[in-house]
UniProtKB/TrEMBL annotation:
Its main location: membrane. It is a multi-pass membrane protein. It comes from the Bacteria. It is found in: Membrane. The keyword Chaperone does not apply. This is TM2 domain-containing protein. The keyword Hydrolase does not apply. Keywords: Membrane, Transmembrane, Transmembrane helix. The chain crosses the membrane at residues 58-76, 82-107. Residues 8-28 form the Zinc-ribbon domain. One of its GO terms (cellular component) is membrane.
């Protein structure tokens, strides 16, 4: 099977077919789409990628609000080109551009923090959306 047709069980981490409804290793019922929570052995299970994105969401959101003019929130998300553009604009304009970049960072920080974990993951981790 190619990597396109495989996924990992959010309960035990076993590599299974992407269309599996149940993990053959642990028996956990699988989400029908990425990020959907499912009941398995009385516990609420969430895709590990969504859980990791949630911590990035909070870190990027706070960095966007506090240090937005330097583009730190972009580097947290792995959007290095956008981060370099923001930092270079702030530095090369001797701080004058920091008002604009700070405003952009503040708005993006608020957007990050108000998105659901699923939407944030899809938009900024999967699609790598750089601006707003």
């Amino acid at each position: 099977m190619s990597s396109q047709t495989l996924k990992y069980c959010p309960t035990c981490g076993a590599q299974i077919a992407a269309n599996s409804q149940m993990c053959p290793k642990c028996g956990a019922i699988q989400p029908t789409y990425l990020g959907e929570a499912t009941r398995s052995v009385g516990k609420l299970q969430v895709d590990p990628a969504i859980r990791d994105a949630a911590s990035k969401k909070i870190t990027a959101g706070i960095c966007g609000i506090m240090l937005g003019s330097f583009g730190i929130h972009k580097f947290v998300l792995g959007l290095n080109t956008a981060g370099i553009i923001m930092a270079a604009t702030t530095i090369c304009t001797c701080g004058i551009g920091s008002v604009i970049m700070g405003t952009i960072g503040f708005i993006e920080g608020i957007i990050y923090l108000t998105k659901s974990d699923d939407d944030f993951y899809e938009t900024y981790i999967v699609e790598k959306k750089s601006w707003f």
